[in-house]
Amino acid sequence: MMKNILFVTSEAVPFVHTGGLGEVATALPKALNARKQKDIDCRVILPLYGTIAENYREQMELVGTGSVRLGWREQYLGVLTMELEGVTYYFIDNEYYFKRDRLYGFYDDCERYVYFSKAVFEALNIIDFVPDIIHANDWQCAMVPVYQFAVYRRTFTKTIFTIHNIQYQGQYGKDVLGDIIDLPEEEYHLVEYDDDVNLMKGAIECADIVSTVSPTYARELSDPAVAFGMDPIIRKNEYKLRGILNGIDNDSYNPTRDKAIASTYSFRRPAGKKECRRALQEELRLPVRDDVPVMAMITRMVEAKGMDLVTGSIDRILDEDKVQFVLLGTGDGEYEAFFRGLQQRHPDRCCCMIEFDPAKSRRVYAGADLFLMPSRIEACGLAQMISCRYGTVPIVRQTGGLADSIQDCRLGKGNGFVFSEYTPEGLEAAVNAAADLFADREDWDKLVLYDMKLNFGWKIASQDYVDMYENLTKGE
């Protein structure tokens, strides 16, 4: 029988996104709906942010209007819809909450996303869609399982809550309980934790299944060093925890027809990869050299991404002339300042772009030889999969989804370089090993072609989600 899935998310490509969640929220529903069996109808619901481009707004149709009760407030609700690439999208319209210049980081984020969670249920009274499963994602949607469990109690509707990043949990003071959260008083305990309100805790307690985005990360969440204080709740609900490795959109990330890169290429016609490399060096005003690899990072510059390892080792690596280094990203001010200084210290070996430009990121993926991801914590990671797709060999630390997707080529059949100890020395050893292999062009070219042939696409990854949905609706 057809299973109806409502995928609840705070962001989705190409409308609005800040990271991996936005890509998953588009690629997974598209893959589910494209199945030959036609046994899944997955639709997506998200806020109608003010930053959504006009060309998409012009394609939207108004389904209906209503209201959402939030504490003492009665707030407007509009529901719009459009279809894109085989997926029906619904947009929750409320300009007071969502007509802003960015997605997150406002004083009233708790109220905004509690409103959104409640609006999901009120929207179901407007749209012609009855979900068997409501699949909510991250803290912004965490109240969806809570409201289903404690307030709406929709018959035959199950809930899944997926943790993409447990660091951000939706933690607020208890004053929001009566003023915003609007649960029955006897249910306050669902979201109370450590003498505060914690929305993610409520979702973990109330959802029928709690999933996360790689098997290793699911195991790591019981570790206090990874769980950011949520490990007791994870252990309590371990019986409902699942770990499914994300995929990437092979249609979007495709070097055979990527218009953003200097030359298209494939594992059958790899010559364009070298053209992309030369074009990147010229664009970034680096010497056009073939004797050292170009090592790239595209990242948020925060501690969890291993930036302390990079800052503790990259000067020595560049002093030894082992690589050219390219960085693209933004983040904490101390790291941004360090990498500006790094470029000044090594102008002929380093280019650090403190920005994020999607088209430029494609050129970096295509033009680099190595892709560095030394994360302390990495729930899944998509960049290491994208880099393989573009023939750029990953160097990763063995954690989370990096451990599940990259195997060390020094141990036999592998697709990258892996180090386990979280130290600058561990990172340096992996970079040195990669630079040494780069010097052996025959073996290096074999590794590049091997990586390009790997399939991290959602067509394969989505089957695990199908199995999870089927088991949940069967009560298994």
Question: What are the salient characteristics of this protein?
Answer:
single chain; Rossmann fold; nine-stranded mixed beta sheet; 38% helix; alpha/beta; 476 residues
Structure description:
- The protein is α/β, with parallel strands linked by helices.
- It folds into 2 domains: about 5-245 and about 460-475, Glycogen Phosphorylase B (Rossmann fold), CATH 3.40.50.2000; about 270-455, Rossmann fold.
- The chain is about 40% helix and about 20% strand.
- It is built from 20 helices and 18 strands.
- Strands 3-4-5-2-1-6-7-11-12 form a 9-stranded mixed β-sheet, sandwiched between helices. Strands 15-14-13-16-17-18 form a 6-stranded parallel β-sheet, with helices on both faces.
- It is globular.
Structural class: alpha/beta
Percent of residues in β-strands: 15-25%
- Tally of individual domains: 2
CATH C-level name of the largest domain: Alpha Beta
- The biggest beta sheet, please? 9 strands, mixed
Give the strand tally: 18
Give the terminus-to-terminus CA distance.
17 Å
Helix segment count? 20
Helix content: 25-40%
**Rg over C-alpha atoms, rounded to the nearest angstrom:** 23 Å
Low-confidence stretches: none
Q: What is the global morphology?
A: globular
> If you consult CATH, what is the topology of the largest domain?
Rossmann fold
Give the CATH H-level superfamily of the largest domain: Glycogen Phosphorylase B
CATH architectural arrangement of the largest domain: 3-Layer(aba) Sandwich
Please describe the topology of this protein:
Layout: E1 3-8, H1 20-33, E2 40-47, H2 54-57, E3 61-70, E4 73-84, E5 87-93, H3 95-98, H4 109-123, E6 133-137, H5 143-152, E7 158-163, E8 171-172, H6 176-181, E9 192-193, E10 196-198, H7 199-206, E11 209-212, H8 215-220, H9 224-227, H10 231-236, E12 241-243, H11 271-283, E13 294-298, H12 307-311, H13 314-319, E14 324-328, H14 333-345, E15 350-353, H15 358-367, E16 370-373, H16 383-389, E17 393-397, H17 400-405, E18 417-419, H18 424-439, H19 441-453, H20 458-473
Parallel strand pairs: 1-2, 1-6, 2-5, 6-7, 7-11, 11-12, 13-14, 13-16, 14-15, 16-17, 17-18
Antiparallel strand pairs: 3-4, 4-5, 8-10, 9-10
Helix pairs in contact: 1-20, 4-5, 5-7, 11-15
